[in-house]
Amino acid sequence: MRKKGYWAILLVVALAGAVYFWGTAAAEVETATVCRGSIRHEVLDTGYVQSAQKLDIYAAQGGQIISLPVTVGQKVEKGQVIMVLQNRDLTMASEQLQIQLSQADTAVAAAAAAIEQVRLDLEDVEAEFTRAQDLYNGGAISQVEYDESRFQLEKTKSSVIAQEQSLQSAREQVNNYQSLLASSRQKENELQVRSPISGTLMQLPVEQEQVVVYGALLARVAMPNDLEIKVDLLSDDLGEIQIGQKAQITAPVLGNQVLNGEVIQIYPQAEEKQSALGVIQRRVPTIIRLDDTSNLKPGYETRVSIIAASNENVLLVPREAVLSSTNGERQVMAIVNNRVVMRTVTTGLFDNKNVEISAGLQEGQEIIKDASIGLQPNARVKALKSP
């Protein structure tokens, strides 16, 4: 009986020791050291290459395309005809106006001849009236004969005035037809579509024999060596973006090359866009000027990193080392004498790896790298340095 009691006591002691050992065993944790370095906060998104100088050409007149001597990608010169439209209504209108103008010119010529004749008649009548007036004053003719001569003079003067008005009206009609014909001819000239600048034909959304209406997009001409990046940024990110901020551009076609750019324009309003996952988002078009275009071409997809802010020589810790407490404070698990001590910290900039610590830690201090492991304050830990 005594032996059984002895072994029972030993078993209890062993169990108590095991409980104590496992209850106070140090947890192995990966650690990091608070260090100094540089950090920058970036806004990342997808952008597309486009020509900085481009012009869309719209149909100034409707009609059928009867000539299309150019193709997409072709270089064109300023003023070069890139397509010809046909509009029979415009042609017929010009022809009719030309006929009416000719008739009006004939009417002007007839009115001019008539007024010349009536002016000659007026000279004769004025001479007759002068003789009649002398005869009447000398008593050689009667009052009736004198009045008849004066009546003829007034009648002829009225005829001159009427002919002058008729000539003026005919001339105004000529001017009117000339203006209408010039306008119609101008419209006919617009059927010859010309490039407004020297560049490359980037788009040609029409084909020969197609009928187009007024205002239809006919072509897009751009200067291919003057490129920029257009990126549609989430409206939530715009608070961090300003004109003049630097950007870096990468793309599969660039390989390992990174191009530098600068934000030069932020559109004044957001636009609704649907993401690849079907989510409606509010995005703001933003333009980035490139210092060097390398081998980029219009339409290429790029990855854009806009540097919103940067700091040098600041304290840094891994992002996963910072957690938020229930009261909203930021905390880090520091290691002091192999035990966990919660440190409240003030954070600054962050990137995809690190967070800036502006208060609460010191350089060289050891912390737990991943705060999500859920250790309690004062827990014993065994530090394993990060590789």
Keywords for this entry:
3 helices; single chain; Elongation Factor Tu (Ef-tu), domain 3; 4-stranded antiparallel sheet; 4 domains; alpha+beta; conserved putative lor/sdh protein from methanococcus maripaludis s2 fold; 387 residues; OB fold (Dihydrolipoamide Acetyltransferase, E2P); elongated; 6-stranded antiparallel β-barrel
Describe what this molecule looks like in 3D.
31% of the residues lie in helices and 38% in strands. It has four domains: 26-39 and 311-385, conserved putative lor/sdh protein from methanococcus maripaludis s2 fold; 43-52 and 226-310, Beta Barrel (Elongation Factor Tu (Ef-tu), domain 3), CATH 2.40.30; 56-85 and 191-221, RNA polymerase II/Efflux pump adaptor protein, barrel-sandwich hybrid domain (OB fold (Dihydrolipoamide Acetyltransferase, E2P), Beta Barrel), CATH 2.40.50.100; 88-187. It is elongated and about 155 Å long. The strands form four sheets. The chain has a six-stranded antiparallel β-barrel with strand order 2-11-15-13-12-16. The chain has a four-stranded antiparallel β-sheet with strand order 3-10-8-5, with no helix packed on it. It has 387 residues and is α+β, with helices and mostly antiparallel strands. The protein has helices spanning 2-23, 88-137, 143-189; strands at 27-33, 35-51, 54-58, 63-67, 75-76, 81-86, 192-194, 199-203, 211-212, 217-222, 227-234, 246-250, 259-266, 271-274, 280-290, 301-318, 322-324, 330-336, 339-350, 354-359, 366-368, 381-385. Residues 12-23 have low confidence and may be disordered. Helix 2 (88-137) runs antiparallel to helix 3.
